[in-house]
Structure formats: structure tokens, C-alpha cells
Design goal:
CATH class of the largest domain: Alpha Beta
Helix content: 25-40%
Number of strands: 24
Largest sheet: 6 strands, mixed
CATH superfamily of the largest domain: Glycoside hydrolase, family 3, N-terminal domain
Strand order of the largest sheet: 9-14-13-12-10-11
Oligomer: single chain
Structural class: alpha/beta
Number of helices: 22
Length: 761
């Protein structure tokens, strides 16, 4: 432990320590001038630094200091490019330093449980492995620059409806496999300097005071030693939260809670060592960030042009080519007699969502202007607004659009969810496009066969009303201030699209896993779909989505060779050769899925366990290499309280999407024996039979019991089909009444448990 921090901690008064575990105002921590402890500043920043004019202001509804607005989380997630996201993280670090920001409040890594989630645009994916790897890359890039990340929102915060009071009811297996895995990957691969808890309750306890979540899982199991902070005003009981491991309450000064802490220590209600542990972590954080704040790069202006180019490049990699019949894209600028550009969003683009992630950009590329530059000026374009009131079609605007489209060589329609529909604070009501836009698409497509739809939205949208009539669809997302140039580059082939969907697009909302329970407004969010979220659900239900997870087309084609796998030293290495079979350079995202052919517990058909993005010139071949550990073959078993890898056959699958598997190989895996379930009074007969020692104890007992009853019980495989799910204590009550004249069934089971325990000691 750092000696200077030890000395500093000892020098602080109880009152000073109590103030250090809360903020000083909206965005700063407390300064202890006497002891030389400076304050540190933090601001929102999932896709750009959102710095208000003062640390006293929230700044949600006003312009903030200009910063680069990078693609939102949904867009970055669709790049599937960890190197690129790490580069964005470094750029965010430079801007943070220049804006005197020591902690950037991001990334947001919550799972997309429903496409209605109001903050889905901030989050990377529906899949925990993809989210975890991308989140770790962002944290590593940011913290390399000496700026701390704050990974959020831990955990079970997957809706905006009543999020400050809603109770997320999640079984432990689902929690571990789906909702905690991304955080675990980030903690272990990137060691974020802070983790932010969420507002909601998790299984009846606020996450800010959740001992299981913060102490047992985060600190003890994962080994996290950084600062845990609250979301703003998310502390309810400061003593409980401190004991659970929440170090920093935001915002501050929260003097009432400081008084409570001092009083609790003095009365003996709170051991001062608990407070000291949190203060120590705060001092360690201050030491980390102040060292970077004194570097040469700190407070130096960043290269605005270079960062804008990075925003453009990231946006271009995020755009997903969903459909491209007859190779209508890319457009040939010199061959079009005229191009119709239709839709208000072409001139007034949606490029980010609302709420705490909203950034004041340093500049903004306008799609219409960038397209005009590509074709040699506005003389080669025809523009129609297409819609104003999204809900009510404007016949005059649609007629103008149809006329211009029919006179052009092709039409590009910019459509998407209206401004203000995707934001922190509330969930969406629909995934359909507004009626005015649907009618516009239908009528323009009927008049112009070369019709390209460009979508601007932060989550999946339904398209069944119109997609059959259009040959090409580009998903542009909310891709930040450089998205206007990025989409023009894609449309005209200057950039080959390489984005892949990081979430499933359903045919309709009622197809989605959480449709029946999501956001029903009763302060309970019951995760009844369990582990079957996203593509896991569609696979298991054999339900075809509109576009599957991982889908995305290219202007070239890729061929997959055979999949190869070898296991040595507990690590399985998987390789597959990828060849660019087309005439354009391009990037392919190779996705590796694992399927357990037979399992004791129900499992998804397949699960993503690795991915890589390869840049390939025409005719070039490269090898995608993946490494799998036993964890990648495991499921979480709540009975055993551990991850379980069962020996047996698995199928490894390499594909261009979750539904486009190009190569497979079967592997026979042998894993070490797993710990048997912990036995207790109400353990099932099958649990007693699962481990040799407990089975031996049970068999001896059953032999004794059978000698005293008229209807002996067999432990044959056939009998266990029926009796296996009986708790042993109930079996004794049902068949062993002759043995219970002077003893209770509880005492008999306790005696058997003692025998098992004695044999194991």
C-alpha cells in the first residue's frame, strides 16, 4: 500500500473522512485543503464530453462546452472493432484533459432487453461478450490517457420506466450470464477506476446498497479495488451503502449523510475501518487522476480537425448495409442524371440521443451537403422535405417527393425516429416509423425503383410495412457529428460498409422476448424471459427476425475456409481462413459461436464467444484466430454457486452473422469435475445422487429405510426419473412414517448432512 496514502489517511479527522465520501457539488468531489487533497471533476461522456458551464449546473437542457460528438454506443457497437473503440477512448481522454475533466462517466454497458429501452442508443449490444469486449477497449483507451472511466449502470438497469424505484426481478443464472458478464469482462480486462451503480432495486434491494452485488461479486469474486460511486441521488441509506462497498455518493455535499456517518462511528454503529476503506480508495483515485492532470497534455487544446476525422471514420464503420438487391449500391456519381434526396433528416440530421449523453458538437456534417459535394454540387440534386409532422402524412410534401423521385435516376430517403423519442428518462412506445414516413417510403418506392432508405435511429425499428418495396436499406444509427460525411462515403462507395448489427431487428414488437412484461409501470421489472434475450430467444423459438444479430452486408464478398480447433493446456485455439472473393477491399467481422450439444440445464442454441474484424484486399486471405477457455463453454449453475463446464461434445461455429454460419467443427471437451451442489435440508434426491460421497450416504440410508417399510424404494434410473426432483425430506415424510415415530424428518436429514460433511473434512 502506498505509504503516503497511509500517512494521509491517518492525518484526516473523522469529519474530513466523512466529507470525502460524498461530492462537493454537482460534478466535483470534496477538497481537503489542509491535508493537500484536491477535488476532482467528472462529467457525462458516453460518446463525448458533456461539460456544463459550471460544476453547479446539471446542464441537461442547455448548450454545454463544445466537444467532439462521437458515434453513440449503438453505433460503436455495430463497428465490432475493439481497436477503433480504443482509439475513440484515447481521443475522449485527450478532450477530457483539455476540459479539466478527470473522470468521464461512461461507458454505459447495460444489456438491451427490449428495443423500447429509452437509452438503448447509449449501449453497445444485446450480447454480454460483445458489450464486455467493446467496453473494455473504451476503458483501456480512456484510462491510458490518465482519465478515469466510470462503467455504468451496475446492474439490472434495462429500462427508463420508473427506473429510480423499479425492482428488477432477475434469477441468479440470468443475472450472471446476461446482465453481469459484460461488467465482469471490463473489470478483469480493463480495471476501470470507477464503477457506477444504478438507480433501480435488484431483487428487492437498491443496487447502491446491495451487498451481494458490490461486495461479494464485484470486490470478492472479481477482485475489483477501484471506487464504486452512485448514480446521481441514488443513495437511500448511507450506512447500508457504505457497508456494502459504495465509496462515493453523488452529487454533494450531502452534509446530512456526513453527519450520520460521524455519529454512527462515534456511537459504535459503524466501524471506522469501513469508512477508512472507502476513503483510502478515494485517495488512491485522486492520486491517479491528479498525476495525469499534471502531464504536458493536460489542458492543451485537442486537434479538433483530427478528432472530427476520427468521428467520421468511426461513423463510417458503424453504418450497416441491411439490404442491397441487385447491387444498387454503391451509387455511381458520374452516371446519375439526377439524384433525389428526400426527407427532413437529410438537412436536419439526428445524430445523437437525448439526456445526459447529449453533446454540443464542435461541428456537424450535414448529409445533404456531403452528398452534394460527392456529385459535383446541388445542381445534380433534387431535394424534398417529405415530412414535417411525423404522425400525420402531408400529402403535398409526399406528392412533391414522388414527383422529384420519378424524375431522378435514384432516390435516397432519410427517415427515422423523431427527435426526442429516444432519450434518457423515458422508454419508447413503438418501434414503428411514424405514419408520415411510412407513407412517404411506400409512395416514393412505387414511383422510383432505385430507392434507397437511410435509417437514423438508436435501436431496432420495424420495417415490414415497406421493406419489400425498396431494394436497399442503410442503418445509419445516431452516429455523431461525422455521420453526414460517413453516409455519403458509403452511398458512393468511397468506403465499403463493414458494420454489423449488435442487436436483433424483429419483424414486429410482439416478437421480442420481453414484450409481455417490459415497462408495464407497476414498479416491478420481471425478467421472465430469463437467459433467452436477443438472438438467444429467436434461435430457441425458431422465430425468424427481420435481420439477425451480427448481420451486415458489404460491397465485396467473403469466403470462409474450414474451421480448425485444438486444445492444449486448458485453452482451445480456433482458426478459420477468410478470403476476400470480390473486387473491392473490405472488412469482415468473423463471429465465433459455441453450441453445447447436450447439457444438464437448458442452454441457448448458440452463444457468441469471440469475434474479430479483418481488413482484406481483393483476393487476400487472412486467418481469424480465437482462444477459448473453459469459461467459454460454461453455464452458471445456481445450485453449485459456480460456472460449470460439462465434458462432452460442443459445436464451434464461425459465421458472418448469427444466422449465416459458414463453417463448423465438433470438439469433444474434457473438463475438470465441478463442485457438487451444496446440500441442505430441502435438497433434491438428484442432488444427493450427484456426488459419490453423498450418494453413498443416501444409498446406506435408503437400504436402512427399505428394511422398515412395506413398499421399498429403488434408486434405479427409471425410479429417479420420477423421484429425482423430490426433496429427500419429502421422500422420508411420504414413505418413512414408520421411522418418524420418535424422530422428526428434519433431524434425520440433518444427521445425513453431517455424515456427508464429516466424510469431506
Amino acid at each position: 500500500m502506498n505509504t503516503s496514502i497511509d500517512k494521509l489517511l491517518k492525518s484526516l479527522t473523522l469529519e474530513e473522512k466523512a466529507t470525502l465520501v460524498a461530492g462537493a457539488d454537482m460534478w466535483k468531489t470534496q477538497e481537503i485543503e489542509r491535508a493537500g487533497v484536491p477535488s476532482i471533476t467528472m462529467f457525462d461522456g458516453t460518446n463525448g464530453v458533456r461539460k456544463p458551464g459550471s460544476t453547479q449546473e446539471m446542464g441537461l437542457f442547455s448548450e454545454n462546452m463544445p466537444a467532439t460528438c462521437y458515434p453513440t454506443g449503438v453505433a460503436l457497437g455495430s463497428t465490432w472493432n475493439t481497436e477503433l473503440i480504443e482509439e475513440v477512448g484515447e481521443a475522449l481522454g485527450r478532450e477530457s484533459l483539455a476540459l479539466d475533466t478527470q473522470i468521464l462517466l461512461g461507458p454505459g454497458v447495460n444489456m438491451k432487453r427490449s428495443p423500447l429501452g429509452g437509452r438503448n442508443f447509449e449501449y453497445y449490444s444485446e450480447d454480454p461478450v460483445l458489450t464486455g469486449e467493446l467496453g473494455a477497449a473504451m476503458v483501456n483507451g480512456l484510462q491510458r490517457m490518465g482519465v478515469g472511466a466510470s462503467v455504468k449502470h451496475f446492474a439490472g438497469n434495462n429500462q427508463e420506466t420508473e427506473k429510480m424505484v423499479s425492482n428488477s426481478v432477475v434469477d441468479e443464472r440470468t443475472l450472471r450470464e446476461i446482465y453481469l458478464t459484460a461488467f465482469e469482462i471490463i473489470v478483469k480486462k480493463a480495471n476501470p477506476w470507477t464503477v457506477m451503480t444504478s438507480y433501480n432495486l435488484l431483487n428487492g434491494t437498491y443496487t447502491s446498497e446491495h451487498d451481494f452485488l458490490l461486495r461479494q461479486v464485484l470486490r470478492e469474486e472479481w477482485g475489483y479495488d477501484g471506487v464504486v460511486m452512485s448514480d446521481w441521488t441514488a443513495v437511500h441509506d448511507r450506512l447500508k451503502s457504505l457497508r456494502a462497498g459504495l465509496d462515493l455518493e453523488m452529487p454533494g455535499p450531502a452534509k446530512y449523510n456526513a453527519v450520520k456517518l460521524v455519529s454512527a462511528v462515534k456511537s459504535g454503529e459503524l466501524d471506522e475501518s469501513v469508512l477508512d476503506a472507502s476513503v483510502r480508495r478515494m485517495l488512491e483515485l485522486v492520486a491517479k487522476v491528479t498525476a495525469a492532470a499534471g502531464s504536458k497534455e493536460a489542458r492543451q487544446p485537442w486537434d479538433v480537425d483530427a478528432h472530427h476525422e476520427l468521428a467520421r471514420r468511426a461513423a463510417a464503420e458503424s453504418i450497416v448495409l441491411l439490404k442491397n438487391e441487385n447491387g444498387i449500391l454503391p451509387l455511381a456519381a458520374g452516371k446519375l442524371r439526377r439524384l433525389a434526396v428526400i426527407g427532413q433528416k437529410a438537412k436536419k440530421p439526428r445524430y445523437q440521443g437525448g439526456g445526459s449523453a447529449r453533446v454540443t458538437p464542435t461541428r456537424l456534417d450535414i448529409p445533404y451537403d456531403e452528398i452534394a459535394a460527392m456529385v459535383g454540387g446541388e445542381d445534380h440534386l433534387a431535394y424534398a422535405e417529405g415530412y414535417r409532422n411525423d404522425n400525420e402524412p402531408d400529402d403535398a410534401l409526399i406528392e412533391e417527393s414522388v414527383r422529384l423521385a420519378s424524375q431522378a435516376g435514384a432516390a435516397v430517403l432519410f427517415v427515422g425516429q423523431p427527435e426526442g423519442t429516444e432519450s434518457e428518462g423515458y422508454d419508447s412506445k413503438t418501434i414503428d416509423l411514424p405514419p408520415a414516413q411510412v407513407k412517404l417510403i411506400q409512395e416514393v418506392a412505387a414511383a422510383q425503383p432505385n430507392c434507397i432508405v437511410v435509417l437514423c435511429n438508436g435501436t431496432a425499428v420495424a420495417m415490414q410495412e415497406w421493406i419489400g418495396g425498396v431494394p436497399a436499406v442503410l442503418e445509419m444509427w445516431l452516429s455523431g457529428q461525422g455521420s453526414g460525411r460517413a453516409v455519403a462515403d458509403i452511398l458512393f462507395g468511397r468506403v465499403n460498409p463493414s458494420g454489423k448489427l449488435s442487436e436483433t431487428f424483429p419483424v414486429k414488437l410482439s416478437d421480442t422476448p420481453s414484450y409481455l412484461t417490459f415497462g408495464d409501470g407497476n414498479q416491478q421489472a420481471v425478467y421472465s424471459e430469463g437467459i433467452f434475450t436477443g438472438y438467444r430467444y429467436y434461435d430457441k423459438k425458431e422465430l425468424e427476425p427481420l435481420f439477425p444479430f451480427g448481420h451486415g452486408l458489404s460491397y465485396t464478398s467473403f469466403e470462409y475456409g474450414g474451421l480448425r480447433a485444438r486444445t492444449a493446456g486448458g485453452v482451445t485455439t480456433v482458426e478459420v481462413d477468410i478470403r476476400n472473393a470480390g473486387d473491392r477491399a473490405g472488412q469482415e467481422v468473423v463471429q465465433l459461436y459455441v453450441q453445447d450439444e447436450e447439457s444438464r440445464l437448458i442452454r441457448p442454441v448458440k452463444e457468441l464467444k469471440g469475434f474479430c474484424k479483418l481488413q482484406l484486399e481483393p483476393g487476400e486471405t487472412k486467418t481469424a484466430v480465437f482462444t477459448l477457455t473453459p469459461r467459454d463453454f460454461s453455464y452458471y449453475d445456481p445450485k453449485r454457486g459456480q460456472w460449470v463446464a460439462e465434458s462432452g461434445w460442443f459445436t464451434l461455429m464461425a459465421g458472418s452473422s448469427s444466422a449465416d454460419i459458414r463453417a463448423t467443427v465438433r470438439v469433444d471437451m474434457a473438463f475438470e469435475a465441478q463442485r457438487s451442489p451444496s446440500l441442505h435440508r430441502y435438497s433434491l434426491l438428484c442432488d444427493w445422487m450427484a456426488e459419490p460421497r453423498s450418494r453413498e450416504v443416501l444409498e446406506r440410508f435408503m437400504e436402512r429405510m427399505n428394511g422398515q417399510i412395506s413398499d421399498p424404494i429403488s434408486l434405479s434410473e427409471q425410479s429417479l426419473e420420477f423421484l429425482g426432483d423430490f426433496p429427500l425430506i419429502k421422500l422420508i415424510q411420504l414413505y418413512g412414517q414408520e421411522m418418524l415415530i420418535e424422530r422428526s424428518p428434519e433431524s434425520m436429514v440433518d444427521e445425513l448432512l453431517a455424515s456427508v460433511h464429516q466424510a469431506k473434512v
